């Protein structure tokens, strides 16, 4: 006859082994699901044109500030194509693993349109908007970063409008209003305040 305390110990060990195997199988499934995320964005040919120094306004979430950083970018001669390349360079900075302003892995800018000499329309994909962190500061930083980068590098822009998958949307992720245009003068003032924040 097996002593009672050995039967209890065996039951505890068996249940621990079962729980551990369940935990390991869940972790493997999670790793497989994470590995299954593939970047399916089409690869555009590299832009033609000389490399130029451009000012990218980079958002830093932790202190809640914008900093202008110089970047060498190959910019085409057309205004709309330049706007597209600037926005894509900024997005690439945010999709980097060491980014100070994290955007979702599938985030993309579908198109940048120069509607008239003063209005730029930035069409974001739904992955960027749906996966964006919610909060007035982080959403405002994204809006200000894209807008100020374009306005600084393409003189004459007075307004920026954001769309999601080609359609108007109320907010970016629950806070930053996307229903109207953003006036560049107001964005410039906001950007200055965000650059001088402690």
Entry summary:
With 198 residues, the protein is α+β, with helices and mostly antiparallel strands. The chain has five helices and six strands, in the order αββαββααββα. Helix 4 (136-153) packs across helix 5.
Percent of residues in β-strands: 15-25%
Number of helices: 5
- Which overall shape is indicated by the principal axes computed on the Cα atoms? elongated
Strand order of the largest sheet: 3-4-5-6
What letter string, H or E per element, gives the SSE order? HEEHEEHHEEH
Intertermini distance? 73 Å
Question: Residue ranges: pLDDT <50 for 5 or more in a row?
Answer: none
The helix/strand class is: alpha+beta
Strand-helix topology:
Layout: H1 4-35, E1 51-60, E2 65-74, H2 79-95, E3 109-116, E4 119-124, H3 126-131, H4 136-153, E5 159-164, E6 181-183, H5 184-195
Helix pairs in contact: 2-4, 4-5
């Amino acid at each position: 006859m097996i002593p009672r305390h050995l039967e209890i110990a065996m039951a505890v060990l068996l249940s621990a082994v079962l729980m551990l195997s369940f935990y390991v199988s869940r972790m493997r499934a999670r790793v497989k699901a994470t590995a299954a995320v593939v970047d399916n964005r089409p690869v555009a040919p590299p832009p033609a044109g000389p490399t130029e120094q451009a000012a990218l306004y980079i958002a830093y979430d932790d202190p809640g500030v914008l900093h202008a950083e110089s970047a060498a970018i190959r910019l085409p001669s057309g205004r709309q194509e330049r706007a597209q390349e600037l926005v894509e360079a900024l997005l690439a900075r945010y999709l980097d693993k060491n980014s100070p302003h994290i955007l979702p892995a599938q985030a993309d800018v579908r198109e940048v349109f120069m509607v008239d000499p003063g209005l730029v329309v930035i069409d974001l994909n739904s992955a960027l908007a749906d996966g964006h962190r919610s909060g007035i500061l982080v959403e405002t930083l994204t809006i200000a970063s894209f807008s100020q980068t374009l306005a600084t590098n393409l003189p004459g822009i007075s307004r920026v409008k954001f769309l999601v998958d080609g359609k108007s949307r109320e907010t970016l992720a629950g806070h930053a209003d996307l229903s109207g245009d953003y006036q560049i003068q107001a964005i410039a003032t906001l950007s200055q305040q965000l650059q001088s924040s402690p």
